[in-house]
Write a structure and sequence with these properties.
By secondary structure, the protein is of the alpha/beta class. The protein is built from nine helices and 15 strands. 32% of the residues lie in helices and 25% in strands. α2 packs across α9. Its main location: cytoplasm. Pfam families: RsgA_GTPase, RsgA_N.
Length: 290
């Protein structure tokens, strides 16, 4: 039988096939080969009526996310709050470069805009990301048409309201939510498992919230490719391996000085590049000591 994993919990994989849901486990040979089924996997499985089934094969994936563990994603709604916690463009760009690296389409959704007294700064930020080519929205009615016929993942910092938004979209889900912790200034973790839900003509996944993000970009070339406004100009740089820092005739820096690239994005790029170089140096020292 053919189907798709829509939930993974405690070693069980729940596979949807032709409108029915089957509880399955993975065969032992998957563990021996180091292969793990994930939510979103298209699989072959066997299942007898009223008994536990087994996953027999996993089809090729078009992409994957480690955190959350989900595959074959069409798009990700990156939720970031305007207040409580305050808007964090550095964290937003960390999400975006991860998704660009994974070749997954991002949608930026700004929550809690009702807590802002002045929308002028919001409009400036919106313009910035729309100029790059991203969807940047903060009204529910602008989001729902984008979900049809797509597998959508919601991710973002804890406390931005992911589960609350999903409950608004589909009240029957009744996902657990929590208030912001006054002492910590961030939301309590509320989502326990990754599951796909049928909502707005598509499938959506809520994910565990987190306040930091480790990304998988390990070189300046990959980082350059993860900034779309850099990538489309970098071919005009004098040096093919230009890092857009100290090199002469850098097309990216020319665009920055001309106001065609936002300073905040360039500053975040420099920070991420420094982090990559520091990790590389730490790795070299570790290897040398061994």
């Amino acid at each position: 039988m053919q189907g798709k994993i829509i939930k993974a919990l405690a070693g069980f994989y729940y596979v949807e096939s032709q409108g029915d849901i089957y509880q399955t486990r993975a065969r032992g040979n998957f563990r021996k080969k180091g292969h793990t089924p994930y939510v979103g996997d298209e699989v072959e499985f066997s299942a007898k009526e009223h008994s536990e089934g087994y996953i027999l094969a996993i089809h090729k994936r078009k992409n994957s996310l480690v955190r959350p563990p989900i595959v074959n994603v069409d798009q990700v709604v990156v939720m970031i709050s305007a207040r409580e916690p305050d808007f964090n463009p550095n964290l937003l760009d960390r999400f975006l470069i991860l998704l660009e690296h994974k070749k997954i389409n991002p949608i930026i959704y700004l929550s809690k805009t009702d807590l802002l007294e002045d929308l002028a700064d919001l409009k400036t930020v919106q313009k910035q990301y729309q100029e790059i080519g991203y969807h940047f929205i903060y009204h529910l009615e602008d989001l729902t048409p984008l979900l049809k016929d797509k597998i959508t993942v919601f991710m973002g910092q804890t406390g931005v309201g992911k589960s609350t938004l999903l409950n608004t979209l589909a009240p029957d889900l009744k996902l657990e939510t929590a208030e912001i912790s006054d002492s910590l200034g961030r939301g309590r973790h509320t989502t326990r498992a990754v599951s796909l839900y049928k909502v707005c003509g598509g499938e959506m996944a809520d994910t565990p919230g987190f306040s930091s993000l480790d990304y998988e970009i390990t070189s300046s070339e990959d980082l350059n490719a993860a900034f779309p406004e850099f990538l489309k100009r970098s071919s005009a740089c004098k040096f093919r391996s230009c890092t857009h820092t100290h090199e002469p005739d850098c097309a990216v820096k020319k665009a920055l000085h001309a106001g065609q690239i936002w300073q905040s994005r360039y500053d975040n790029y420099l920070q991420f590049l420094s982090e990559i170089e520091n990790r590389r140096e730490t790795y070299k020292k570790t290897i040398k000591r061994k």
